[in-house]
Specification:
Blueprint: E1 5-6, E2 24-25, E3 28-29, E4 31-32, E5 35-38, E6 41-44, H1 50-74, H2 81-94, H3 98-101, H4 108-117, H5 119-126, H6 134-141, H7 146-162, E7 166-168, E8 171-173, E9 197-198, E10 207-216, E11 219-228, E12 231-240, H8 246-263, E13 267-274, H9 277-283, H10 291-303, E14 307-313, H11 321-333
Parallel strand pairs: 1-4, 9-14, 10-13, 13-14
Antiparallel strand pairs: 2-3, 5-6, 7-8, 10-11, 11-12
Enzyme class: hydrolase
Keywords: Endonuclease, Hydrolase, Metal-binding, Nuclease
Domain RNase H type-1: 203-335
């Protein structure tokens, strides 16, 4: 019981800490504390997170000094190095646990605490005098104030983890419109499969399916073209919504190819070619956090019971007939007068 504590939350003054509730387990009274550290965040009885931000300040100052010492010693000629260190290490560290304290961002004290945490790193980046104001440092460095950055990160947390709609500024965001990540811990290990691929060039034999995605003038299209012994037997194009990415178009191409393959009977050999290495690598990993990739894997696994499906990567713009044809169809798809598919938005667009 030495590791068990109770933290009375006195938010709103409705609970007097001087007379806390008494909780006992097996005749052992649970010790009352004013703050407790849980999952890297220090919680206090009033949910001010004062101690949490104070500890962050001390660690950030120490981290800034140590990183700048190493950077100056070995990389002194790279002027923008510490800015990269800030974005890659310091800022994510400062925003850790935003899901816990993000609701308190409406308090000026919390916002001021966050912005003050930026001072030491920003002084290092700008080489300014210590008497300069934090607001001026943020402008000179060209770095978003930490309280505004925290609101954006907390908004993503609400959309992806809590599945809540949010309002950010004057814009309203619905969580159903954005890609949600799967909790890999909820997927049975036996269902964590990978779909391998190779880099063999087309042989011109049997069924060869080519897919591609394209974005021209902010309009997005995907295509599939099927050859049987070098003779084109099928093609299909889809125009996606204008906010879609080329990556999403490439994924759509794979999905269209599988839809076509599902319509044909048992077949000895079906080759699926794409020039999107990133999509193939996503399929080749055992764990996936995106629903669409899990569905693609399961579709291939199911169809492989009666069809031999092999995925191949081919380089773009190398004169391969099938790939060039698929690219041509994808470009034509962008000019369609109507949108046929609206994929969920990527959080990179948030």
């Amino acid at each position: 019981m030495q590791k068990t504590f109770q933290l009375p939350i006195t938010f709103g003054g409705r609970l007097n800490l001087r007379n806390p509730p008494i909780i006992s387990i097996n005749n052992h009274t649970i010790q009352v504390v004013n703050n407790i550290k849980y999952l890297g965040v220090t919680w206090d009885c009033c949910l001010t997170f004062t101690k949490h931000f104070k500890a962050l300040r001390d660690k950030t100052d120490s981290l800034t000094y140590k990183l700048s010492t190493v950077a100056n010693e070995f990389y002194s000629k790279r002027s923008g190095l510490f800015r990269n260190i800030y974005y890659g290490a310091i800022e994510p560290y400062l925003l850790f646990g935003v899901g816990a304290w993000g609701n308190r961002l409406k308090l000026k004290k919390i916002r001021d605490s966050l912005n003050s945490l930026q001072r030491r790193p920003l002084i290092k980046i700008t080489k300014a005098y210590r008497t300069i104001s934090t607001e001026a440092l943020q402008v000179i460095a060209g770095i978003v104030p930490l309280d505004i950055k925290a609101k954006g990160v907390f908004g993503k947390f609400l959309l992806t983890t809590i599945n809540n709609d949010i309002k950010f500024g004057s814009k309203f965001f619905k969580w159903e419109d954005y890609e949600t990540r799967l909790d890999t811990h909820n997927i049975h290990p036996a269902d964590n499969i990978s779909i391998t691929y190779d880099k063999h060039n087309p042989s011109g034999e049997e069924i060869e399916t080519y897919t591609d995605g394209s974005k021209i003038n902010d309009q997005v299209g995907a295509s599939i073209v099927v050859f049987y012994y070098n003779a084109e037997i099928f093609n299909r194009t889809i125009r996606l919504s204008d906010f879609a990415t080329v990556y999403q178009a490439e994924v759509t191409g794979i999905q269209m190819a599988l839809e076509f393959i599902s319509t044909i009977g048992p077949w000895n050999k079906i080759n699926l070619y794409t020039d999107s290495l990133s999509v193939l690598e996503a399929l080749d990993t055992f764990k996936t956090s995106k629903q669409e990739f899990l569905a693609i894997k399961n579709d291939i696994l199911e169809m492989s019971k009666e069809k031999s499906i092999t995925l191949h990567w081919i380089p773009a713009h190398t004169g391969i007939q099938g790939n060039e044809t698929a690219e041509s169809y994808a470009k034509k798809a962008t000019t369609k007068p109507y949108i046929e598919k609206i994929p969920k938005k990527s959080f990179k667009q948030f």
